[in-house]
Amino acid sequence: MSDADPRTQWNTLDKDLNRISQLELATSYASRPLVAPGIALAFIVLAGLGAGVFFGSSAMNMVVIAAAAFGAYMAINIGANDVANNMGPAVGANALTMGGAIVIAAVAESAGALLAGGDVVSTISKGIVDPTAVASSDVFIWAMMAALISSALWVNLATWVGAPVSTTHSVVGGVLGAGVAAAGVAAVNWPTMGKIAASWVISPVLGGVVAALFLAFIKAKIIYQDDKIAAARRWVPVLVGIMAGAFAAYLALKGLKRIVKIDLETALMIGAGTGALSYVITAPLIKRQSEGMENRNKSLKALFGLPLVISAALLSFAHGANDVANAVGPLAAIVHATEFGDFAAKVTIPTWVMVIGAFGISFGLFLFGPKLIRMVGSQITKLNPMRAYCVSLSAAITVIVASWLGLPVSSTHIAVGAVFGVGFFREWHMERRLKKSAEGLPPEKRIAPEERRRRKLVRRSHFMTIIAAWVITVPAAALLSAVIYLLLNAIVG
């Protein structure tokens, strides 16, 4: 029997247990960053296994299995990057919590993709490359595989550095680079590429101008009125009607292609009818909600909160309906070419391929989306419900205008451009008020120009990072795609 003091034994045991608990805590903390990539990897593997169930595991069908895995990887990256543009303003304005935004966006994105997702995609995305210039279905399959891998890698890199980029332009760049590597420069439809390049400038500028105009209207007609509540009762139902009409036209034009084909004139009529109905319904609701509210800006934020949440959900639905093909378009083309050997026709996206896209976007949003949501919502400029509402409204209206003009625009560029537009308008408006208030003051009491420069309301570092990412997205994805195509061709050839 040991003569050691029992108290010493207990003290030693307590110290050992404490060390073990600290080790467990450290292990848990160190492994936490690996949870999200682990879940993402599991989904990618399941997508490949699911494709194997449909196609078997023959040598050619292994290509489809690999393409399904990369399609899932692309969808995850779209969820991590692109969806932030829809939910970021609502979160930044404190109209939604991060968790609420992720749940709403996941449901709306999946519903948009599965219920109204585009059912037909050109085999060589949007006429960028001439199909007759491609030598064979094998060449086409490897070109599409390279486009899929390169665009997914580029969007992943952009998410990692915190830059919201266009997944549409990433896919376009991927198809361009693989097409040039496979069929030469002459195979590229350069007029189409010219339109896409023009959209780099037109999309964000148009989105920013529309958002700034709506913010100027809200400031003039509501915020700076003596009786803010009376002004809100008059104009908030009008703004909600405009929002409802814009989204109805947007969804009719872009999100219902699977159900029925609607031209621009019909979509505008649907939008006008929906907007009028929304005004009739909203006016008494706003009047009732505003009763007893104090005559200050905080009350106005409450009135804009619910419309902002609804607009964010509608944007996510439309995004899922319109952009899911970015993830699964090249995958659908590979599946079609593998099954039928035909790569010059229109391709119907199979349901199981659409499911990979929809669930991949939701997983990407849930696992990696908060970083870009914070960037768009609060790190570019400060948003409140009125400013965020202008961003959402601008996104819907700008897409309709661009469709009317026949321009291939990016929802990412429009939404982020609208955030910048709101921020730069606030800077201009603040500068104007400072100059006006300084009139008649002695020079020593005026704010120095250096101090005014420090009070910028848009973070220039984020502005330059995002603009640089936008400019290099297509060439970077194209170069990466060309390199991947040549590597794949060397390995399988």
What does this structure look like?
This protein is mainly alpha-helical. It has one domain (39-492). Helices cover 78% and strands 1% of the residues. It has 16 helices and 2 strands. The chain has helices spanning 6-31, 35-55, 61-81, 84-92, 98-116, 137-161, 167-183, 190-223, 228-255, 264-289, 297-340, 351-379, 385-405, 411-438, 449-454, 460-492; strands spanning 120-122, 346-348. It has a two-stranded antiparallel ribbon. It is globular. The mean pLDDT is 78. The chain crosses the membrane at residues 34-55, 62-80, 139-159, 171-190, 196-215, 235-253, 259-281, 302-321, 349-368, 388-405, 411-428, 463-488. It comes from Leisingera methylohalidivorans DSM 14336. InterPro entries: Phos_transporter. This is Phosphate transporter. One of its GO terms (cellular component) is membrane.
